[in-house]
Design goal:
- This protein is mainly α and about 425 residues long.
- It has one domain: Up-down Bundle (Growth Hormone, Chain: A), CATH 1.20.1250.20.
- Helices cover about 80% and strands about 0% of the residues.
- The protein is globular, with a radius of gyration of 20 Å.
- About 60% of the residues are buried.
């Protein structure tokens, strides 16, 4: 939750304020494109972070890497909060912003795999449920970050929010960092990794092991998650920016995002638990088909002009449909790779798929700037859902795979 508070706080701020603060020389639509471009830069760095921290996580342990990634994320978010604006230091402001966003991407790229494995490798039963709590940290962080921005906007007012109010949630990151480090210092290394390390069954180059022995699993992992991330980026970032363009107030959009994110926590945990009973494949397939259909209703609902309909669109998309695609991924990705390279493989597959969340808002805002209608955006989301369906059907069911047998590879090739 704390890690995604930092990462997604940037996403919401990019949609509602960064275009004005860091790109004031551009017209509003071009400023939005530039702002979401810096947002996308973090997603481009995530696979690098996954490979980097995954390597050391598979070599020296999950816990050490989680302490490192959280420290990096907390410090970087605090620095964003004190970053001078374009009016103060000119072009250096957006340049430094991009660098800090890339560092955020490296941190969260290494964070997810380690956090999931701490849950999945400790689990003795109902692995989908327990690993799903890690994925529930995403919308929890979104609730926290949007609530912080909403509160700042309400207290500071429109002008005060643009002048200083947006900084407050970033500055709070340093407090959350202290809480997170305290929690993580109390967590033990996973018994699965400890057994592998004790038996000298780790590998010197986990990335080479993944690329040489599991290329098919890696590609399928990317394909399975791509639509979920594109939908996530659309619902949590682009729709917020598009909603402002369509005439909705920033405050109502942030309230809608907070509500849908809070309900998404329940959806993710519920669908993750369901995947222990029905299997990972049926749950993810159902979510992908539903999202393909819903994508054609999303933008007309936002364009309706009614705040209640816009909020309903966010709730349906983010809290009801998207969790079915996203919740089971935590356990599924862990089950696709063996202990020797699980941190690297799961992280890399997840973070490469996460390109969808970073690039979808940038692509759609570019299409918006070119005057292209929203129907094309819906077609793109639906097409990615078709890719997810095909990739899920190519993966055997994995929910019965044992993670603690490190002597051989149970993952389907």
């Amino acid at each position: 939750m704390i890690e995604y508070y930092d990462f997604l706080l940037y996403a919401t701020a990019a949609a509602v304020v960064f275009g004005v603060v860091f790109f004031p020389a551009l017209d509003p639509v071009a400023g939005l494109v530039a702002s979401l471009g810096t947002f996308a830069a973090g997603y481009l760095a995530r696979p690098v972070g996954g490979a980097l921290f995954g390597h050391f996580g598979d070599r020296i342990g999950r816990k050490r890497m989680l302490l490192t990634t959280m420290t990096l994320m907390g410090v970087v978010s605090f620095l964003i909060g004190v970053l001078p604006t374009y009016q103060a230091i000119g072009i250096w402001a957006p340049v430094i912003l991009v660098v800090l966003r890339i560092l955020q991407g490296l941190a969260v790229g290494g964070e997810w795999g380690g956090a999931v494995l701490m849950s999945a490798e400790h689990a003795r039963s109902r692995r989908g449920l327990w690993a799903g709590f890690t994925n529930a940290g995403g919308p929890c962080g979104m609730v926290l970050s949007t609530a912080a921005l909403s509160g700042s906007a309400a207290i500071a007012g429109e002008q005060g929010f643009l002048a200083w109010g947006w900084r407050v949630p970033f500055l709070l990151s340093i407090v959350l960092l202290a809480v997170g480090l305290y929690v993580r210092l109390k967590v033990a290394e996973t018994p699965v990794f400890a057994a592998a390390a004790a038996g000298d069954r780790t590998t010197t180059f986990p990335l080479v092991d993944v690329l040489r022995n599991h290329p098919r699993n890696l590609l399928l992992a990317v394909g399975i998650g791509l639509a979920a991330f594109a939908a996530q980026g659309t619902l949590t970032t682009f729709v917020i920016a598009y909603g402002v363009h369509a005439g909705h107030s920033r405050q109502s959009l942030l309230v809608g995002l907070t509500l849908s994110s809070g309900l998404a926590v329940l959806g993710i945990i519920g669908y993750s638990a369901l995947s222990d009973r029905l299997g990972r494949r049926p749950v993810v397939l159902g979510g992908a088909v539903a999202m393909a259909v819903f994508s054609f209703a999303l933008f007309p609902m936002v364009d309706s002009g009614a705040t209640a309909v816009m909020v309903l669109a966010l709730v349906l998309g983010q809290a009801l449909i998207h969790p079915a695609m996203y919740g089971p991924l935590a356990a599924l990705y862990a089950e696709l790779f063996h202990t020797r390279s699980r941190y690297t493989g799961a992280s890399l597959g997840y973070q490469l798929a996460a390109f969808g969340a970073g690039l979808a808002p940038l692509l759609f805002s570019t299409l918006l700037a070119e005057g292209i209608g929203t129907l094309g955006m819906s077609v793109i989301i639906a097409a990615l859902c078709v890719v997810t369906v095909l990739c899920v059907r190519a993966v055997p069911e994995t929910n019965a795979i044992a993670l603690d047998d490190v002597s051989k590879d149970h993952a389907p090739r």
